Amino acid sequence: MTARMAEKRAIITVSGLVQGIGFRPFIYRLATRRGLRGHVKNLGDAGVRIDVDGDESAIKLLLSDLVEEKIPLAVYNKIDIDWRDVGEGRIGFIIDTSDIGANEVKHSLIPPDVSICPECVEEMQDPGDRHYLYPFTCCALCGPRFTTIVDLPYDRERTTMIDFPLCDECDREFNDPGDRRFNAQTICDPTCGPRMTLYHPDGSIVQGGDPIAVAARLLNEGSIVAVKGIGGIHLATKTTDDGPLHVLRTRRRKPGKPFAVMSPDLENVQKYAIVSETEREQLTSLARPIVALRKREPFPLSPLISPGLDTVGVMLPYSGIHHLILYHVDEPALVMTSANYPGEPMFVSNEDAFKKLEGVADYLLLHNRRIHARCDDSVLRVIDDQPLFLRRSRGYVPLPIGLPFDSRGNVVAVGPELTSTAAILKEDKCYLTQHLGDIESPESLDFLSVAIDHLVKLLRVGVPDIVACDLHPNFLSRTVAAELADVSGTDIVEVQHHHAHLASLMADAGVKPDDEIVGIVCDGYGYGSDGSPWGGEVLMGGYEGFSRRGHLEPQPMPGGDLCALRYGRMFQGILYSELPKDRLAQVLYESCIEGFQRGGKEIEAVFEQLEKNFNTPYTTSTGRLLDAVSCLLGASHLRTYEGEGPMKLEALAARGRLRGGIPVDVERDGGDLVLMTSKMVGALLTMRAKHRAEDMAYTFQHALADGLAEMAVTVAKEQGIDAIGFTGGVANNDMITRVIHRRVNEE
Ligand SMILES: [Zn+2]
Ligand SMILES: [Zn+2]
């Protein structure tokens, strides 16, 4: 009788990411271990309910187990406990799988793709296991999710795994609550699951045994192999030999764009790159992103992987396919670069792979599972010891980002033009789509629509209350916004590009709805409130509005967008009013001639353009300024990929030291602060007599960061604001970020 006195009933409700990730079997194991009776059940919108009877102390232990032994992917938003008296006696513990209505799933989180877990890798390597060498091995804790989900609720019928009915053995595991594959929607084995096939480009099958082992042998021999993975298709080739990389670059017409590589393990990564503790955590995280790492010197792999850069993008294998290829390959790393074309979305069907990769891939290693939601690899870089997304996609999408406020309605935002993502705001969360690339072609516009529609469907958003787009009048994404607004009868809200950056930074930092901050927002281009091209801005404001308080000196862009492609033009524009024409011409011919597509003829034409002020908009862009300096210092001349000028300048600066000689002058133009950049660039000409290019690159970046910080600190002091942030594409520059951070903290 006394023993029973201590018995209690507890109804525990856990909300957050607790569905589709093996959560209920996890609870089953915990509850049975503690000798508790009752059940666990999915509630859809409200998460998961655990209803248990038993010794009060055992229930308390269950609660601490729940937190301490949390399965990797689970995210708890809230755990509620309702203590009651024990009612009718219950026997044993069960997983209640009774159906939940479709209308109940509206708030449940959809899991992202998860890298293969160590237990599944072990099975793949065990000759006694039926998953031996089977590349699609996964369990309740791991495997593809988002890329396979067609609709909700999340079960096999509504994923691309519907094409592969479970065999008896898999079915038994699926229905056994004690099995780690219990209720796992994407499980399969060699009997019932998808298969890899290695093809010649003409579609005929390459004979000779296990397709992955054969592909690996061909990679060892220097072939270029297309590999279909989880969310898309990679082009793979070896990294210890320049030959195949040279062929790949020629065939893809990508002379300089950095390629990502994949290594079998950390030990191999450390042979060619330096890995900090934070970087190690990111590399080995469940999402397995590409992490930009500092190259070792001398760099033992081919210089053609990321020419002219001091970093290399590295990832670890995230699916069985990758593990098995790398297992058979004798290389410390393989190039694994996305097979899509710039400005076009990733193609994912086998049919398209043959068409698009004709003349590019020597072989195609494909499988017969459809990719429903294409999803590129995520890319991040550790800046000032903080991980920073350059691209948030596979492994993270569609997990939301928490907002420090409640949205007044459902908002669909269609994103900008370059390296775009769209977003949905719902309640206190922001859901980003996967990386969409540049929205500049009809194909990419389609992808934008499809990605938004899919997320709207999965989140049960219905008709949006507000549609948001960039202020730019000619961005293609505007047509998607117009269609959405038309269909739903809602208004379009136009958002200035740099204000969007500022607001994102505020949300990331948890700034409250009514607070204001000062933001330094630096990138290549954004349509300004006054219609001119902005990109080096000091803004003050909050979520709802902003004012421009400072910027870089507006510089002429003779020929407009041509300046973004030919860095010599920008340099010429910046120094046009700073130097006598003869002197400038001399510098251009001596040091910048490679920054013009048509050499001296172009230089003369640009002079004429500047004299007549013809087709010469003025920009405050930081990207263009760094392009110009990159050109003068010989780091890069003509753009072959987005961001090349600043990235190569940063690589040059990484080997430099701080010198003196660059003036940091902030002047006032009306109410605005202006950092005088022509003088800064002009000073480099004097420095050249005494200093190395590396030191000048370092010193220039340092001075620029100082100037930006000085403007922001001045505004913050004048306006009585105590928070300053730095964001935009230039915030991917580690050194500029560090200098601004230090400078702001000092004040
Ligand atoms: Zn697993
Ligand atoms: Zn099976």
How many helices? The count is 23
Large-scale geometry: globular
Provide mean pLDDT, rounded: 94
Q: Pick out the low-confidence regions.
A: 101-107
The CATH architecture assignment of the largest domain turns out to be 2-Layer Sandwich
Q: Helical content, roughly? A: 25-40%
Radius of gyration: 28 Å
- The CATH superfamily of the largest domain turns out to be ATPase, nucleotide binding domain
Report the CATH C-level class of the largest domain. Alpha Beta
Strand content: 15-25%
- Main pleated-sheet profile: 11 strands, mixed
Could you name the CATH topology of the largest domain? Nucleotidyltransferase, domain 5
Counted up, domains total 4
Which class do the helix and strand fractions yield?
alpha+beta
Description:
The chain has 747 residues and is an alpha+beta fold. The chain has four domains: 2-105, Alpha-Beta Plaits; 196-367, DHBP synthase; 400-495, Nucleotidyltransferase, domain 5; 550-746, Nucleotidyltransferase, domain 5, CATH 3.30.420.40. The protein contains 23 helices and 30 strands. The strands form five sheets. Strands 6, 7, 8, 9, 10, 11, 12, 13, 14, 15 and 16 form an eleven-stranded mixed β-sheet that branches. Strand 19 (423-426) and strand 20 (429-432) form a beta hairpin. Helix 6 crosses helix 10. The longest helix is centred in the last third of the chain and has 27 residues, at 693-719. The chain starts with a helix and ends with a helix. Residues 101-107 have low confidence and may be disordered. Residues 166-167, 169-170, 188-189, 191-192 line the site of one zinc ion.
